[in-house]
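During data preparation, a discrete fold description was generated, as reproduced here:
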Amino acid sequence: AWVWEYWISQWTYGFGSLMVNQFKDQESNCNLVDTILLRCVQNANQLNGNTILKQFSLDHFNRYELWAYYVCFFLGMYLTVLILLQIVNHNPKETVMRFTRRFRKLILCLLPILLLVVIIAIVVPLATVLAIDDDCDYSYRNPRIDGYCGNPDHPEWGKKGTDFYQWYEDFEYDDEDDLPNPRVLSNRLFDMEKRKELPSEAHINVLQAGIAQFLVHDLLYFQSDCSQGHVAVPIPECDPVFDITCTGKHVMHLCNVKRENKMTSWIDLSPVYGTSDDILKLLRKGRQGPGQLAMDKKGYPPLDLDDDDAIRMEGTTKNRKQFLTGDPRSNSNALLMSIHILLLRNHNRIARILENTYDWDDDELFYTARAENHILIDQAFENSPNDPKQDNFGMDPIFWVIYRLHTMLPSSLRVSNSPDPTKATYKSIHDYTLKETVFNTVEFFNTYNFTEIVNGMVSTRAKAANTGIIDDLRNIRYFETLPCEYEPGLFSVGMDLVKLYGLRPLNSFDELVYDDEIALELRNLYGGDIDRVEAYIGAHFGDTFSRHTHVTNGILFNLVGTIRRSIHNNALLNLNKHGDITDRDGIIKKLALGSLRDFILLNTENMDCLPGTPNHIIDNILNRLECGLDH
């Protein structure tokens, strides 16, 4: 009886999952399976706050093992029916004798097969489950640094080295030589002189630009691929960024990019902790205390000059000083490095508190502090899109960044438009159109609970760690705001990261450009074929003008980048015109004002403001951040 019950239960278990695969309605929530099996094989997985169909058997069991279940089940049913028929038509004693004679040889032949099936049915699932448990230890105290098992049910999701989802197929142009210069098109799309008139000065927090850039770096890192040559883009004469002196002789050489992501696809502070055990070991070498990351006496990361194993920004050599970080792009500008340093200091602060509270070893202190730092960022982004101060005409810069990356998400991510499962309808994130999401931002927020998508990019480990650490540290009051000299953490900055641009929502592609004249010009370039305009932008205006960058990446990179580029372009232009490019006090003053038009992105290629020169710019930014001022 026990064996028979086991086979029945295993068959139901496996066949139920098979039915989900074959019959599930894309717009429903496995109601058909509920009706037929009276048990819905869905799991309210809090990975992304949405309901995900969890295909039990196909995740944890071998497909051949399922067929073994099916064969044994149907064979058992067949024999059972025969026995019942014999019992109905004959007396039990005669039935048993006749059954024994008729099927004795068959049973003897099938016995080895049945024994083999039993072994497979018991050993394979057990070994599989044990292997999953070993690889995906759900403890936050010793997580994988490469993003593996960020979602224990789908361990490979988000792992470093995973290829990006490609929304559009690659394509070639028949008339490539006749296409317009992509830099000219970019400048026409984002006319900086006209955009000075936009009402943005009072509605932007400079910290936002840095936070958004840090988030991008946390989620993705393209690697250039120059094996197939490069794209030579002539720079237009008097380009406001690349040809300020109007020589007309500049050319930008850009390579394609690989689809592989060099970072994890989770919001897990990869720029701070790295994505490999070797890099993490390097970042911890020379630490000042148990559980801490390496930091010099001034509170900066160590320099990388003495470490041959250190990773560096592409195109730089050891002759240029850089801070040693988990992501060398943190050295790109002073604001980005300031956010990085703030998170580094916060990790070490938490580690010191834990050291004074618990008798833990070095690794346990480190991974607990890392998890708490992770939770802090998780909560910051969790709260940002739903800022109560947001009005109906604002566009959240964090939204721009996240939507740009939405194709990295697995296709099974489904967004609900209602917290009530009985009333909700579900839609794959890949089914949203550009207009539905980008051009009607607030509607998307209010209707589709965008915060859940952000949460989907925070690994399941962070959610579990949140509960575990809060329990561990429930008696420690280290979130309280302290005076600046006592080194408060990120919470003293507050969660007011979202301020409004003051721009109205857009309803068409034409409104991406500033006026009807430019829109008409773009349409005329391609005979009015707007799809080709979008495809052209997608092919040429990605992070590296890559032919392999899909449309959304291309358009939204420009939209997100407009914050930084408009800041950078106009400030550099104005400073150069007035000859005050070295007026660092003036730059700091502009930075403190938080003006979109006047704040300069302190790019190291233009300003050389990182190690090797006085660090008072970074100190000034850090002081403002740590004191919680709204700059």
